[in-house]
Amino acid sequence: MDATVRSTHYARRRGKRYRMKKWPKLSLVAHTSSHLIASAVLSTGPSQDAPLFEPALLRAAWQLDIDRLLADGGYDAEPNHRIARQDLGIRSTVINLNRRGKGAGRKPSPRKWARTRYRRQMYRRFHRRKYGQRWQVESVISRFKRRLGSALRSRSDRSRERESDLRVLTHNLMILAGSSP
């Protein structure tokens, strides 16, 4: 989400750059076939995605039964796999593996296998075709921003949280009402 209503496209055309130190970050859990948003957690970026997994998933588990969970590599952490599998009873998690060992300031790791149980299982049995349905969530995010705007107008963190919750509710009501995309 954007923290301001200023158009970054317009600013670039004028040759200006707006740098944000912090911005609102919305983590969503969406139903892939209906595009309804089951839960949304607002935080402040830049930050890691993995810690937002548990609160978003627990809120979504109240709304619907989850059989298979698709997530991107930012949520790849053994505690997240364990919460989904053991605590919530989700049959399979398809999370794109975030290869450890290579990156800024890290030495290349000779290890090809993950060290922990569920990450190792994901490495062996990664369902590329099922993971391909993750584009549905990206479609939900695109639709959400296109129809309701990407800029939050509130200034305080609490007000931004209420505004994002209201937008999620509005998005779901628009889908249930059957309005055209």
Brief summary of the model shown:
The chain has 181 residues and is an alpha+beta fold.
Features:
alpha+beta, 7 helices, 181 residues, two-stranded parallel sheet, globular, 41% helix
Tell me what the structure shows:
The protein is an alpha+beta fold and 181 residues long. The protein has seven helices and four strands; from the N terminus they run H-E-E-H-E-H-E-H-H-H-H. The model has no long low-confidence stretch (mean pLDDT 80).
| Total beta strand runs | 4
Biggest sheet character: 2 strands, antiparallel
Distance between the termini: 20 Å
Q: Can you tell me the overall shape?
A: globular
- Level of helix content? 40-55%
Roughly what fraction of the amino acids lie in strands? 5-15%
User: Which regions have little confidence, pLDDT < 50, spanning 5+ residues?
Assistant: none
Mean of all residue-level pLDDT scores = 80
Strand line-up across the major sheet: 1-2
| Count of alpha and pi helical runs | 7
Topology:
Blueprint: H1 8-13, E1 23-30, E2 37-45, H2 53-63, E3 68-71, H3 78-87, E4 92-95, H4 117-124, H5 128-131, H6 135-148, H7 157-177
